[in-house]
Request: fold
Amino acid sequence: MQPARPRADEPWRRGVRDSLPFATASFVLSLSFGVVAVESGFSPVAAVVMSAVVYGGAGQFALVGILSAGGALGSAVGAAALVNGRFVPMGFALGPSLRGGPVRRALEGQTSIDVSWTMAARGDGTFDRTYLFGHSAVQYVAWVAGTLAGVLVPGMDARALGLDVIFPAFFLALLVKEVRNGRRLVVALLAAAIAFALVPVLPPGAPVLVASVAALVGLRENWR
Amino acid sequence: MDTTTVWLAIGLCALITFAERAVGPVATGGRELPPVVTRVVVLLASALLAALVVTQAFADGDRWHVGADTAGVLVAGVLLWRRVPLLVVVLVAAVVTALLRLAGVP
Reply:
């Protein structure tokens, strides 16, 4: 019997496989986005296109929520930019693990989405880029397909079905994996406290961005 | 909500999000991060995820809010800590939230 040869596409396949359970949750979440967007006055095509070109749930919900509440275009776009502002520090973390020139790096960086980014992290500050691509590809398909399903289901009340808790439950799942390490638990608690305290003070999205400063406790060497 | 506003909002949001995802990878190039930055980076996910969960579960826009969804997320937290599979957790959290809303909890 021949020993199994290591395969070049192995991390990509692992990424795809690991992504599947999360893809189910993403599908239901984006389904609820499709429902909410159409209820808010988006055309079905606009809702699906938005999922395809933005590919960031929190920002999409923020934009639709503010527009449907009668908010101005500027405040809706600004809120979405703030909510998605976390992609900036995430991109700086991911950057050194990507390849190629500026254009290719910019494009590779588009695969960054919370769940895939977190799971592609090796824990030493570097990322497995092929794993990230596989993981993110499945998330993307689930995200767009879910929105499509949502706009085709007329009159479903996503809130009454409790579908809005899928999003936080999903992130909590990732967080629980992270914080079994004591140092990260302290950072998470600190960030949670900062975000909570800033809710009534800052516009939606900004507390999350500011709370990322909790990671600065890492500046202290040998801290535990 | 008129069609022009919707499409303009989608276009601007897509461009900004693209730029937000691109700036880090382009700016860092192929360089390695200094060790001190790496120590911060490995903690970033925990901070961002915790902040996302808290603002989803305990806030409604720019107001603090405790309701059926808060209970659903707390139940999810307990189940996840006890290593219950994600799909079961998500399902139970949604059912708890839906039942509480049915009972009149906001």
